Structures are given as C-alpha cells and as structure tokens.
Hints:
Layout: H1 5-107, E1 108-116, E2 144-147, E3 157-160, E4 164-170, H2 173-176, E5 183-187, H3 191-197, E6 200-208
Parallel strand pairs: 1-5, 2-4
Antiparallel strand pairs: 1-6, 2-5, 3-4, 3-6
Amino acid sequence: MSVTFNQVNKGVRTINRDTKSYILYFLILVISIGALKTVINEHKVEIVKMEIEIEELNAQKENLLRQKQLYEEILELKEELELNLTQQIDILEKDTLELQEENEQLRTIRAKLTAYSPLDNRDGQQAEGNPTRTSIGRRVGRNIAAADPKKLPYGTKLEVPGYGIVEIGDTGGALRNDDNNIRIDLFHNTYPEAMNFGVKNQEIKILEWGGD
C-alpha cells in the first residue's frame, strides 16, 4: 500500500491541530485551576476572618451575659436594700413615736394649782415686801408662776391648760412646805379672781426645764 506525500502532509496538519487544541485546553485548565486556587485561598482568608469575628462576637456575648448577670444581682441587692431600709425606717418611725409618747408622758406631771394676787393683797398673805417683784426679783405678771424651786427650778416653763404658758419665777413658804404635792401658784390680778380660781388638781406639761 503506497501513501502519497499529500496524505502524509494532511495527517501532519491534523496532528498539529489536535496538539494545539490539547495544549490550549491544558493551558485553560491550568489557568482555571490557578484561578480556582486563588478563589479558594480568598475564601479561606474570608473564612478565617469570619471565624475571628465569630470568636470576638462570642466573647462579647459572654461579656454581655456576665454584665447582665451582674446587673440582675445588683437589682436583687437593690431590692433587698430598699426592703431593709424600708423596714429600718418603719422601726425608726415606730421607735420615734414611742419616744415622743414617752417624752410627752415624762413631760406631763400632775400638779396642785392654787392662785395668788400679789397686787391685791387683801388677806395680807399674798406678798412679802415689794408686791410688784417676785422673790427672785422678777416682775410679777400672768406669765410668772410660783413653785418650790427644788421641785420645779426657776426658769422652768410650763403649759397650764386653761391658763396659758408660765415660767417659774417666784416661790413661797406654803409651796416649799407642801411635801405631798407639786404645787404651783398662778398669778391673778385681783383677790376675787384668785379666790374664784380656787384649788385644782390637773395635768400640766413641762415645756422646758430651768435651773443650771
């Protein structure tokens, strides 16, 4: 079987075209693989970045959870403190009221009230010496009362119901010699007024203690 030159030349050209195609396909494949590797590497970098971000977010989440727990504990403590303070305030208010009541009781005494009229000394027993001055030199008047200074020191202020506020600034023998009573002599302008007042036993309030 004989082969002509043209046939050989044609076959060579066919092989060259196929080789070029293979080479082209190979180059395309190599380029594609390189591009794919580049894309994969870029994705790997992005994945690493995302993993880092996820770790940071998880850390932030844990930190926020700890802060939330801390705030909840603080709120519980705040509620406990408020409850405790409320209870203490209630106790203090109760104690204060009890002390006020006790103080009122201590400042309330029962006294024997009598009357004198030094400026209208009809019976000769209403004043000794200058009728316008008390035994310690105070000017007589409705605001000055007489008592035993050992029981109610000079300067003690009293609230006498139905009469008013007086200050102990005078004394007398009958007042000092009454061992059974806390006796207070109240000033009246005239003898009839003093006699009309008579003698009364009632509770009076001590507003301020006198003496040193």
